[in-house]
Amino acid sequence: MSKVKLYDTTLRDGSQAEGISYSVLDKVHIVQELDKLGVHYVEGGWPGSNPKDMEFYLKMSKKRLKFTQLVAFGSTRRPYSKAGQDANLKAILKSQAKVITIFGKTWDLHIKDVLKTTLDENLNMIKDTVSFLVSKGLTVFYDAEHFFDAYNSNREYSLKCLIAAQEAGSSAVVLCDTNGGSLTSEIFKVAGEVRSEVKVMLGIHCHNDSGLAIANSIAAVEAGADMVQGTINGYGERCGNADLIPIIANLKLKLGIDCVSDEKLKQLTYVSHFVSEVSNMKQKIDQPYTGISAFAHKGGVHINAVMKNPKTYEHIQPHLVGNRRRILVSELAGKTGILIRAKNIELDLEKGDPKTKKILKLIQNLEHQGYHFEAADASFELLMKRALKKYKRFFELEGFRVVVEKQSKKKITSEAIMKLKVKNLKEHTAAEGDGPVNALDNALRKALKGFYPTLSKMHLSDFKVRVLDEKSGTAAKVRVLIQSQDESDTWSTIGVSENIIEASWQALLDSVEYKLLKDKVAT
């Protein structure tokens, strides 16, 4: 098999994980990164289920993706009704998505005990829904929910559901291990048998409740599936979904299946870390292929061997997936990544340049403190330019004070008082806000707006806080990630400190300075 389609459902299935809640802008940024990675289909949500998902689809209808096709998700029509009158299906049409995934019941247990309808009516629901959407000129995929349980319970009927979708015009049928309880041998056997029964594209959608979702997805491909569904970093309800990150690497590097190009494969580590930051989830350091420990060597015997021949303790070359080898007892590693990032922002650095070594050391120290620049592109660019003395500050902070006040039966109020030096002039201003960070933002803008009018075109669009060391309690370091945007661009900045106000100020300062830098404002 030379081709396998990649189908990402991070923005729907992944968002159902505990602790994850994506804003519309979060979703836009993630789908744009998946487009760069070369994912064929990205499921953005269920437009009939909530206003936020519909807003996302309408926003994306005005944007252009170079490679990815955006997919809308929904269910078959209700029993004994008409597809054309179904509210969820009307919402799908309103979303303007051109590819639609419809899930339907396949397991007779669900049809009888949950839908409370007949097996024949369920087949009618599948046929009517798929044919209705196809008649509107849409590409339709059919997700056969609980397929492997259904197959074991009633093989003949479960296949009828797939054939019904196929005959109604579905371009793919997807076998879902919805409860995540199937063993790999069972997935391989059933997927192989189904492959001989259906003519359209065959997909696999696995959950990880038995810890086998990645293996099960790979086994289905080896049995003939030509579409794999999953989420970035395995995010999802309960124990999560199949992790698309190692799946992509395994398909490409182990099975030789051309699911992404060699160049796009190198983005895998970046995308994995980017999505974890946007999701406000701690990145697994031992995640296969893309974790920071995936190619880390600590034991003396291992280090000695791997320095002579990396194949001794590495199953692939780390750079193939955009990762790097780490020797934990030395300072070797990391320069290549810096050189690549420097080139992207038009900075000239050479591997043997002392400046490169200086920046590497600086980044290593900052990462040790808790900084992570994968999803803080603007802060990284500023860090590089500061280290290389490629620009000077637009203003200098002389000091600020933040007052948070709570009076009985009144809401908490926040005020920031700030002193700045701008173009050899002193500014002393104060502003209130909904919280201390908002007050700081308002005071900073108020002080600068007369000097830099372009700041009125930007605003903070997201604010995330993560505790880095839970064991330290209220004394723990926190990482603050701020997302900002203007009329044409979005950027992210980072701050780390034991004091949440200090961490927020660092990220806020970078956000404003990056805006002025990118607008080429004179200092």
Overview of the structural elements:
There is one protein chain. This protein is an alpha/beta fold and 523 residues long. It folds into two domains: 5-278, Alpha-Beta Barrel (TIM Barrel), CATH 3.20.20.70; 396-518, Alpha-isopropylmalate synthase LeuA, regulatory domain (Double Stranded RNA Binding Domain), CATH 3.30.160.270. Helices cover 38% and strands 20% of the residues. It is built from 18 helices and 16 strands. The strands form four sheets. Strands 1-2-3-4-5-6-7-8 form an eight-stranded parallel beta barrel, surrounded by seven helices. A three-stranded antiparallel sheet has the order 11-12-13, covered by helices on one side. It has a three-stranded antiparallel sheet with strand order 14-15-16. Helix 2 (51-60) links the parallel strand 2 (41-45) and strand 3. Helix 1 packs across helix 2, helix 8 packs parallel to helix 9 and helix 16 (377-387) crosses helix 18 (500-518).
